[in-house]
Amino acid sequence: MNKKTKRMTQYIVMLLIILAIGFIVYSTLTKDKDKEVKPGDTAPAFELQTMDGRSVSLNDYKGKGLILNFWGTWCEPCKREMPSLSANYDKFKDQNVEVLAIHLRNDPQQVEQFFSGLKEKVNLPVAYDNDNEVADAYGIDPLPTTVVIDKEGNVKAVHKGEMDSKTIENYMTSVAR
Q: Phi and psi dihedrals of 11, rounded to 5?
């Protein structure tokens, strides 16, 4: 390889490195800063399939308080909070409060095994977020994450991590009637 070709190759490699660094910096600076919902935001619309095959959307809950609980069968904190979530739902559903437990994968068999493996009976509507579209729209990370939505469709609270029974009760009280 002659000197001119070697120098040209070095320039091309250097240019590619500079372009790669520029792309990384640009991507970082222009990245949508976590589409995470916050209290006061309008809740992003969604449409999901439930465990029993029904289609549900955010519009179905207009005029009601709504607790969206994002969970997974592999999530131990999800397993621990699920019975309290169900018990509080039973207590508050006559006060215009709904719960939708959103599983981040569409695996009905795993979900059935999950619920049958719990000590307490859990009676919650479950929907599948197959492609994590709803979780992405709400900026969900980690699991469990719970989003509390008021009757007007606004986010009232976002709770990351496991909740105890009292916390769940307080959230449900905040959107009841």
A: -65, -45
